[in-house]
Amino acid sequence: MSKNEHWIDLRSDTVTQPSEAMRAAMAAADVGDDVYGDDPAVNRLQDYAADLFGYEAGMFAPSGTQTNLIALMAHCARGDEYLVGQEAHTYKYEGGGAAVLGSIQPQPIANQADGSILLSDIEAYIKPDDMHFARTRLLALENTIGGRVLPQDYVKAATDFAHSRGLATHLDGARICNAAVKNGTSLREAVKGFDTVSVCLSKGLGAPVGSVLLGPKAFIEQGKRWRKMLGGGMRQAGVLAAAAHYALEHNVQRLAEDHDNAAVLAQGLSQIEALKVHAPQTNIFWIDVPAAACEPLREALARARIRATVGPRMRLVTHLDVSAADVARTVEVFQAFFADWRAQ
Ligand SMILES: *Cc1c(COP(=O)(O)O)cnc(C)c1O
Question: Whole-model pTM above 0.85?
Fold first, then answer.
């Protein structure tokens, strides 16, 4: 796509382009072979992220799918199981990797409307120590989940409960920075209670590639073996780590703009009678679109250079390459489309 052909892309916050300043940081990175632990930019990122979130150690990996899988494989052995939400990314959107590659049984549990999993359900699904059952080892939560922020007191209650029952806790914190910014808490506060956390740098934070896994030093060392086995051992990865570092240093607080833009977009779309808008908490929300409108809406948006995943239940995502002006234009395009559509 040429730079002067501006498309408004509302499909995901993964579509952001690295800024000039981020590219400059990448170009200037000192690099080495990270499989030998020799890449200074990777090491700096790992130390910086660990300190920022309050963990002993960190590990940079190519994707959040990989940092989650590494965490699951380091927490659980063959024949163990982890408790996870039905709607969770690790369970639903990672190709079943824990089962396929980790020999770990997922025990999915219904998510409540706010994204939480009931403590009574967690309790009910913990298996007794009996040879008939997989060994329940881990509770994995996700925050934000589908754009929803888990309540802080819920996170404390759920992680305390898991620990009291001898389970470890992992957070899929792909968008934990959105949750912290929304709640106005520090990143350390937002991850409190979790033994380990995976954070995506390539979503709203705007890095082109990469996630970090954070946890105790011995856990991260063990994780590095799994990372190598899974094909995630990278060499001069400092060019990527420099972008990720830049993202963590510069792009966390600005997530508030994405939340504001999502709120304005949702408010504008909610004026359209044909749509049902599920109000956003952060940068991701859903609207219900009449099925018959989907195909023509897709075409109208494409003509207006707006990319979106159009469907009867349609997800819209704001991010650092969507401006307030883009939001206003998107609302106009929707309004014009539905004015016509209703007239037909
Ligand atoms: C994107 C995402 C991941 C995985 O990230 P990839 O880098 O795409 O592999 C994990 N969890 C959640 C909630 C995500 O949104």
Answer: yes
